Amino acid sequence: MIPQDIAMTQVSNHPGSNSSNAGRMVIVLVLAVAVGAFFYFDLGRFLSLTALQENRNSLLAFTDANFVAAVAIYLGAYAMVAGLSLPGAVILTLAGGFLFGAGLATVLVNVGATTGATVAFLTARYLLRNTVEQKFEKWLRPFQEGFAKNAFSYLLTLRLIPLFPFFVVNLVSGLTRVSVGTYVAATALGIIPGSFVYAYAGRQLGTISSLKEIASPNVIAAFVLLGLLALVPVLYKKYMAQSS
Asked: Which residues of the chain have pLDDT under 70?
């Protein structure tokens, strides 16, 4: 039996822990409400190729009449979709290409997606990293050390190759010890090719009948090649280390 005064002392010695746990609970609650609302109200129906094609004239008219507002709404929507790991990023990229042109849309997609990805990255780090490291420290330590040495190249490869889901890379990266600056730089650079391809395709929105037409085997193979090229510095460093 712990005396009451000792127990109260132990509790008072950890006020930061209680506030930290409360902060985590608030974040989890906000995320759950936001994601739940998205699916409950079926907001995903607005982020489909059919919906985009049916409303392209009204969207284009709104953009022409309210360009600054359209850009702000677009950036906010893209950051929200990426930050909450919601489906619809590809449709938003197509919409950006149609409304703003391939060049400007690529820039806007980069800003919105990188912002949302960074939010997801920091959220995963704040909510999960300490718990995961404590439970799996023995297995994670070698991975953490190897990943940290070549974090930029590894992240760049993951971003360039479209086979790795965007939201998975966001969340898993948050569990590593990669710096925020490295994460942001690799993300912003790595998503440029894919953003441009889909934004450019958005200019021919009326002729697209399926998203598979855009992500053709040749396009995917080109992205994979770019991703593998990003690993060249890592392989070179390992080769030099073994040679010496």
From this structure: 1-17, 142-143, 236, 239-241, 244
Kindly state the tokens that stand for 189.
């650079």
pTM metric for this prediction? 0.83
Residue with tokens 């995917």: 220
Q: Output the pLDDT for position 43.
A: 94
d(CA 28, CA 22): 10
> How many Å apart are CA 82 and CA 52, to the nearest integer?
19
- DSSP-derived 3-state class of residue 160: helix
Q: Quick one: how far is CA 244 from the chain centroid? A: 38
Query: Do residues 77 and 92 lie in contact, with contact meaning Cβ atoms separated by under 8 Å?
Result: yes
* Cβ neighbours for 173, distance < 8 A, ≥ 6 positions apart: 121, 124, 155, 183
43: which DSSP letter?
G
